Amino acid sequence: MIRKKVKLAYITNDSSRKANYKKRKKGLMRKMSELSTLCGISACAIMYSPYESQPEVWPSRIGFQQVLSKFKMIPEMEERKNLVNQESFLSQRIVKVVEQLRKDYKDKREKEMTQVMFNNIYDKWVVHGESSSSLSMVALPSMMMVMPKVILRTGTEDIMQLDVKKMDPMKRQQWIMELMNNNNNNNNNPQTHVGGEEMMFQFDDNINPNNGH
Amino acid sequence: MIRKKVKLAYITNDSSRKANYKKRKKGLMRKMSELSTLCGISACAIMYSPYESQPEVWPSRIGFQQVLSKFKMIPEMEERKNLVNQESFLSQRIVKVVEQLRKDYKDKREKEMTQVMFNNIYDKWVVHGESSSSLSMVALPSMMMVMPKVILRTGTEDIMQLDVKKMDPMKRQQWIMELMNNNNNNNNNPQTHVGGEEMMFQFDDNINPNNGH
DNA sequence: CCCCCTATTTATAACTC
DNA sequence: TGAGTTATAAATAGGGG
């Protein structure tokens, strides 16, 4: 039982690596829990490995779903039908953006992490339902990228509301899978790169500008 | 230098708790790094404490920004101006929803975690700029909640594009702060609660439904 | 605040079943 | 393959500078 001093390098032996991962994951989760308990801080950890289909997450979803429940009241005002055009446009915009994104996914590791990150965020914060899939998370980056410029641009007094009762989770899932299934066109076109600053929110007026405390 | 066995409970002594946090955070970061290196897995950790204004994140943003850079090509197609109305509506919708959400924020710990989680996700995945603020993240949960029903509803062939060059990060920040500053109306109205299933995506057609592999 | 020191606890590499 | 065992490496509590 002579124990070697750990060499900080990728463990090439498959079974050793897996065993190492299992042990260290457990230890890390415990450390996470201890830190949170001892110091009363909020923390979160996500680990994604080929050994498990679902990512390992700390803490359990329970804590986060308390927060989630506070967001559930959003759809309470609705019943408006005249937004179909806007929604159609935006939906299509999302589709295009997601397709664009898909083409530039090259690094599988990074891609998986993308999915995992957003899958977890999504599961915790947005949807709490049976139909969450890790695949679906590819859509979220695009949403988070597109929404700031599509949505948060101006501010008028006109309030319009939505009918959210029409939603169909089944078709949503199909759509997401469609986007995911033909993957890796692998064109890394540098001309498509645009600096990040343009992608931030904009609000032209209607908001008191003297509040940047 | 007698060392007590750690009792797994909140450390009431302020300085001890902080010292403990500092040490354990460092250890946890190292463990995270080791696990990632040794086992070649993707992982992420976020710790939010009152001792630091910015949350502690592993890994550094660098790794994630490699992924982020792949999203930066999104604005490459643009120059369309006839979307002002849609954007105005949606912007206002967001404002309303954020206000609604703000009223139901009661638990400060959870609220802070909300901000932290989204702040980190946002910093890593969406914006890579100087003007990111943890305050701004209150807007993101609302976006992620609203977008699925506002946006991803139908699918037509009509593609419209946006002019993203007009954006003004300064005003965005002011708006976000405006939303944040008058906080805690504290009405926990149960009638505003709506089940989560209605909030999922919907795509009515245009997507091959035979692909739910 | 930060790093350092050291006794001690804790995590875990290598091994066995 | 996974769950125990044990000796050793690593982390860290308490204290000092």
From TrEMBL, chains A, B:
Coiled coil: none annotated. InterPro entries: SRF-like_MADS-box, TF_MADSbox, TF_MADSbox_sf. It comes from the Eukaryota. Keywords: DNA-binding, Nucleus, Transcription, Transcription regulation. Pfam families: SRF-TF. GO terms for molecular function: DNA-binding transcription factor activity, RNA polymerase II-specific; protein dimerization activity; RNA polymerase II cis-regulatory region sequence-specific DNA binding. The keyword Hydrolase does not apply. GO terms for cellular component: nucleus. It is found in: Nucleus. GO terms for biological process: positive regulation of transcription by RNA polymerase II. Its main location: nucleus. Residues 1-49 form the MADS-box domain. CDD domains: MADS_SRF_like (cd00266). This is MADS-box domain-containing protein. It comes from Gossypium trilobum. The lineage of its organism: Eukaryota, Viridiplantae, Streptophyta, Embryophyta, Tracheophyta.
